[in-house]
């Protein structure tokens, strides 16, 4: 399953942003998803001012009935 979004907004200081969001999910079974599954959420936050840009990637990995593993990486610049 793939979803994509394009959002715009302005923070309290007046800096405008564009957020490009992508979500990718892999299911190994029926839908709605049960266990196991992997879901990745990628957000590219683009500043329209002097604030740095950022990419945030969140991955949920739930291969079995144990607690899911959550991985978050963020790149700024």
Briefly summarize what is shown.
The chain is mostly beta strands. The chain is 0% helix and 64% strand.
What general outline do the C-alpha atoms trace? elongated
Question: What's the number of helices?
Answer: 0
Average pLDDT across residues? 81
Strand content: over 45%
Global structural class = mainly beta
Number of strands: 5
SSE topology string? EEEEE
Helix content range of the residues, please?
Answer: under 10%
Stretches where pLDDT falls below 50 for ≥5 residues?
none
For the sheet with most strands, the description reads: 5 strands, antiparallel
- The rounded distance between the terminal residues' Cα atoms is 29 Å
Rg, Å, rounded:
16 Å
Quaternary organisation = single chain
Query: Which strands sit side by side, in order, in the main sheet?
Result: 1-2-3-4-5
Fold blueprint:
Elements: E1 2-10, E2 16-27, E3 37-47, E4 54-62, E5 69-76
Antiparallel strand pairs: 1-2, 2-3, 3-4, 4-5
Description:
This protein has 77 residues and is mainly beta. It contains no helices and 5 strands. Strands 1-2-3-4-5 form a 5-stranded antiparallel sheet, with no helix packed on it. The radius of gyration is 16 Å and the shape is elongated.
